[in-house]
Structure formats: C-alpha cells, structure tokens
C-alpha cells in the first residue's frame, strides 16, 4: 500500500493533468493498493488540510485536459516561513497534514517558487518528488519544462495571425509574449513566427537599434515589422537602475507594460503606426500539445518508478532526451536563463533578426 499526496502550485499551464495522470498510471499499474490525496489549490490545500481522496479513475480521461483538476494558487516562497494572518506556522501545518495522512511521499508539480518550497519540505524531512512545470522553461536542471511547447504553439500562432494584418496595413506590430525574468518563450515564438525584432530580458535593448532595424526594413521596401517583446524586456538604461529605482520608475510610468512604451518610442521616432497585441494568459490555456503529452507521460512514469523504489528528494527532468532524477537540493533556487551568446541567438542574428543590442 502506498499513500501519495499530490498538488499543483503556482501559475497553471497545459499538461499538469497529463503529468499527474502519468504518475498515477505508473503507480496503479504496479501496485495492488494505492491511495492518492489530492490537495486543492497548491500548498494552500496542504497548509489548511483541504484535500480529497482520489482514485485512479479521477486521473482517467484527463490527458488532453488543460488547467489542473486540483486547482492551484501562488503561495510565495518568501512568505512560507511567515505565519498567516491567524498566526499559523505554515511549514509546521504542512508537515502536520503530511504526517496525519501518513503519506509515503508528496508529488509536487510547479515552477521555480514551488520548487523552492518543495526543497524546504524535503529539508524538513518529507519525501518529495517534483515535476518541472512552467511555460517559461526556466527551471534549472532540465532541458525542458512541460507547458513550454504548448504555450509556444499558441504564442507562435498569435504572431502568425498578426503577420497577415501587419502586411496588409504596412504597420509595426508588437506581440508581447509571457516571460518576466527569462526569454525562452519570446525567443522561440519570435523565431518560429518570423518576428523581425525580438526583445528578451537577458539582452537589454537599445531603442536606437530597434528603430534602426525598422528603418532598414522600410528602406528595403518591407512595409511592416513584427516585434516579439518579452513581458520582462528591459532597456539598456533601465538595466542600469537598482531594483528600488526600477520599481519606483514602474510605479510612475503611464504605460501598462514595456510593449506600450516601446510602441510609443517607435511611433515617435519613425512616424509609423504601431499596434500592440498581448495574448497574456491565453498562452497558458487550452489542451497540451502532443510534445507535452509525451513529455508528461515520460516524466510521470519516471516519477512513479522513483516512488516505487522509495527514492525521494528529486526533480524528474529531461536531459539530452532522457528522463533523469535531479537532486532537488542542487537545483532549487537557480534560474535557467537564455545565454545571449547561445547558438539559437547567433543563428537568429545571421538571418537578420534584431535583438536590440
Ligand atoms: O510563470 C508563468 C507565467 O505565466 C509567467 O510567464 C508570467 O509572467 C506569470 O506567470 C503571470 O503570472 P500570473 O498568472 O500570476 O498573472
């Protein structure tokens, strides 16, 4: 008999259900008795003891279903050691729930913040398996996270649609792609969608270079330009500011996001009409793509094997096409960023894509 707890935490994405299904199928096929406790709304469910006993039936037919059947919420890591408004010690409460249910292990699906809390619980003596979820693809220790490829299809589709209207109107279009700290999604969507300019947080941009690239296209007889701009794109000047100064500047700005600021600067300097499209949370919605379904089935199967072997304290990642167990303590708190001199960026530059640097 195995008693497994499961929760999904942080921003949702496609394939969370597919990953949970993979784990449960892997266990169910190899065990006579299995109890699965699903905690609602991420760590909240574990803290406040809000859970439901699930059966393998609950995980049937959810491979293609977006979102998460368990619900999710953001519970920032930095507040985990801070008591709640009623003075409750959250870490102690999570441990209490775990021990009360006599769990063999907790399977935690989430991104960077979630992973840090998962590691904290491991340090507190709980048996943890983490599965790397995020459309941002920024989890250290795995080549790819689930959600990324599905979101990439959506973001690319948006740029594709913008292409036809941009060309008809001879306009400059900005598509703002999710990614506050890292630019994997805007980089890949920009290349896949044929964007002419890609701005990502890892490469602070110079607006003069952006304008230069647009003017060059006009001179070459290309009437429209498409920019894929990360939510977290940052100008060279702003990159020099301290965290505090940047926060103060953002408070003052009249622009809803960086794309609108870039749009205003381009319009002013080139006289071109500029339009901004923000697909936002659409990028996290809908069914997982085929790639993510395969990935999650593999990650889930590997996680099930670790649980059967009672080998805990790992994230299951995908490295060079192989699923691998990666010690949580080695990866928690690290961010996988785009390297500005990586091959993809070098080659994108060869084909004329401007990164504003
Ligand atoms: O971490 C995933 C992500 O979608 C980021 O790309 C984005 O910046 C953020 O979450 C949005 O968060 P929220 O759903 O809390 O608005």
Given as residue ranges, the uncertain stretches (5+ residues, pLDDT < 50) are none
Q: Could you give the order of the helices and strands?
A: EHEHEHEHEHEHEHEHHHEHEEHH
Described by strand count, sense and barrel closure, the largest sheet is: 7 strands, mixed
Tell me, what is the CATH class of the largest domain?
A: Alpha Beta
Strand order of the largest sheet: 3-2-1-4-5-10-11
Assembly type: single chain
Number of strands: 11
Gyration radius (Cα, Å) is: 22 Å
List the ions, cofactors and other small molecules found in this model: 6-O-phosphono-beta-D-fructofuranose
Domains (count): 2
The structural class is: alpha/beta
User: Percent of residues in helical segments?
Assistant: 40-55%
**Given the C-alpha coordinates, what overall shape results?**
elongated
Provide a compact summary of the structure.
It is found in: Cytoplasm. The chain is an alpha/beta fold and 357 residues long. The protein contains 13 helices and eleven strands.
Description:
- The chain is α/β, with parallel strands linked by helices.
- The chain folds into 2 domains: 2-147 and 288-331, 3-Layer(aba) Sandwich (Rossmann fold), CATH 3.40.50.450; 150-284, Rossmann fold (3-Layer(aba) Sandwich).
- Helices cover 40% and strands 17% of the residues.
- It contains 13 helices and 11 strands.
- The strands form 2 sheets. It has a 7-stranded mixed sheet, with helices on both faces.
- Strand 10 and strand 11 (322-327) form a beta hairpin.
- Helix 5 packs across helix 6 and helix 7 packs across helix 10.
- The longest helix has 22 residues, at 148-169.
- Pfam families: PFK.
- ATP binds at residues 11, 74-75, 111-114.
- It is an enzyme of class 2 (transferase).
- The record marks 113 as: Important for substrate specificity.
């Amino acid at each position: 008999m195995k008693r497994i707890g499961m929760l999904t935490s942080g921003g949702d994405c496609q394939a969370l259900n597919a990953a949970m299904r993979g784990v449960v199928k892997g266990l169910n096929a190899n065990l006579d008795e299995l109890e699965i406790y699903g905690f609602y709304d991420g760590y909240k469910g574990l803290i406040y003891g809000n859970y439901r006993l699930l059966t393998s039936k609950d995980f049937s037919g959810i491979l293609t279903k977006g979102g998460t059947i368990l619900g999710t919420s953001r519970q920032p890591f930095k507040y985990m050691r801070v008591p709640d408004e009623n003075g409750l010690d959250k870490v102690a409460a999570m441990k209490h729930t775990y021990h009360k249910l006599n769990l063999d292990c907790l399977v935690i699906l989430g991104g960077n913040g979630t992973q840090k809390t998962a590691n904290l619980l491991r340090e507190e003596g709980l048996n943890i398996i983490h599965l790397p979820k995020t459309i941002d693809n920024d989890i250290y220790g795995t080549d790819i996270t689930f959600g990324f490829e599905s979101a990439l299809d959506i973001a690319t589709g948006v740029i594709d649609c913008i292409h036809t209207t941009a060309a008809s109107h001879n306009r400059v279009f900005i598509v703002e792609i999710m990614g506050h700290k890292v630019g994997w999604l805007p980089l890949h969507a920009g290349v896949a969608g044929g964007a002419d300019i890609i701005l990502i947080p890892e490469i602070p941009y110079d607006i003069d270079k952006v304008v230069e690239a647009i003017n060059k296209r006009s001179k070459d007889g290309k009437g429209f330009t498409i920019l894929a701009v990360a939510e977290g794109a940052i100008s060279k000047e702003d990159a020099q500011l301290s965290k505090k100064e940047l926060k103060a500047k953002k408070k003052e700005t009249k622009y809803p996001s960086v794309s609108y600021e870039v749009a205003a600067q381009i319009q002013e300097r080139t006289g071109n009409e500029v339009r901004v499209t923000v697909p936002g949370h659409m990028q996290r919605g809908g069914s997982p793509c085929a790639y993510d379904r395969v990935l999650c089935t593999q990650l889930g199967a590997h996680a099930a094997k670790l649980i059967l072997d009672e080998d805990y304290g790992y994230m299951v990642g995908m490295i060079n096409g192989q699923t691998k167990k990666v010690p949580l303590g080695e990866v928690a708190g690290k961010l996988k960023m785009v390297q500005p001199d990586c091959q993809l960026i070098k080659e994108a530059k060869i084909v004329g894509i401007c990164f504003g640097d």
